[in-house]
Amino acid sequence: MRLPTALLMLLAVPAAAQTRHNSEAPINFGADHIELQDRANRAVLAGNVSVKQAEMTLNAARMTVAYTGQVVGGSPQVSRLDASGGVTVIRPDQTARSQYGIYDLNRRVITMLGAVSLTQGGNTVNGGRLTINLDTGRAVIDGSSVGSGGAASGGAVQARGGRVTGTFSVPKRN
């Protein structure tokens, strides 16, 4: 289901306030536990995970950080963050929540799945999947949802149909 252009405009950061996210900024993190898996070029962060890059913060219960194996300036080159468990992305004037989140640093895109809620000002939109383009600030949410399959499906994640719902604030009028 595609959203009307007017709805997409409400979800995008206003042009005057829009700044391109600096995906080359350092990534600062904190967690209760970290496991480095150098042979697999990844690190697994667990427990109260908080990652901050420029003006954006990503919080989750668990996160896998994938890196390329290249080291520049003494730091590994992070290519992707996979988050699960109470995922929250906070950007200026926007907060998104979901069950799962993927931050693809190369494409500069965040995809959030499962019980998604996007809040900007007094506007809230709910759905199953949210894609945020960090270059343009455009956020697209659709009704497809993600849920855990039961024993019959072997516990696999399955896509299901759904709807986008929400509330838009209305300015006070005289």
Spell out the CATH superfamily.
Lipopolysaccharide (LPS) transport protein A like domain
Distance between the termini: 36 Å
Beta-strand share of residues: over 45%
Helix/strand-derived category reads: mainly beta
Overall form: elongated
* CATH class term: Mainly Beta
Q: Any idea what the radius of gyration is?
A: 17 Å
The average pLDDT score comes to 82
Major sheet characteristics? 10 strands, antiparallel
Number of domains: 1
Summarize the SSE layout with pairings:
Blueprint: H1 5-11, E1 27-30, E2 33-37, E3 42-53, E4 56-72, E5 75-91, E6 94-104, E7 109-120, E8 123-133, E9 139-142, E10 145-148, E11 157-160, E12 165-167
Antiparallel strand pairs: 1-3, 2-3, 3-4, 4-5, 5-6, 6-7, 7-8, 8-9, 8-12, 10-11
What would you say this structure looks like, in words?
- The termini are far apart.
- A hairpin with a 5-residue loop joins strand 8 (123-133) and strand 9.
- 4% of the residues lie in helices and 60% in strands.
- The protein is built from one helix and twelve strands, in the order H-E-E-E-E-E-E-E-E-E-E-E-E.
